[in-house]
Amino acid sequence: MTTIIHPEDRPAGRRGFEIVLPSGATDGAAALVEGEIAAATPGPPLHTHAESDETYFVLEGSLVMYIDGEVTTLGPGGMAHISKGTEHTWSTTVEGGCHFLTLHLPGGYELYHPTALAAEHEKGGPLIQSDLFELAAKFDWRMAGTEPMRLTPEGVLVPAGQADAEAQRLLATFTKQPVAKQPVA
Known about the structure:
The chain is an alpha+beta fold.
């Protein structure tokens, strides 16, 4: 199957992700997603994909990756292939954002992004974590462990609810700006 996709033909993405090659264009064989993520952004909670492999390729910036207990930082041209069943997550560094591609083999997971976007539009705002987890499970995504953990820009796994505040604190220290007050939950 040969497919040509122009940028204006891409399906809708969300939160810095855009689907470059949907699995429908490859008979499900593969999907390619482009990420452009700001500095000091913790990625998704630590998770696995039971049915698919995922490969990250960094175009610009740096991506801190946690893969099966190991932390590494990928710069431009760096790549990480993650086999199905492997625990992984990522964060961007405080020094800058990251522009990267993820290849999913087989495809299908990428459909989570437009599905979540549609659900957010239907709700009229962001979904809560449990709703996102339930939705993601339909697309070969499973949280690893008993509680959601996310990666800080320093490469430390912390409870998901603390990751954004920790990233803001690290970014403020790096840029020598005051830390924004966090709402009390």
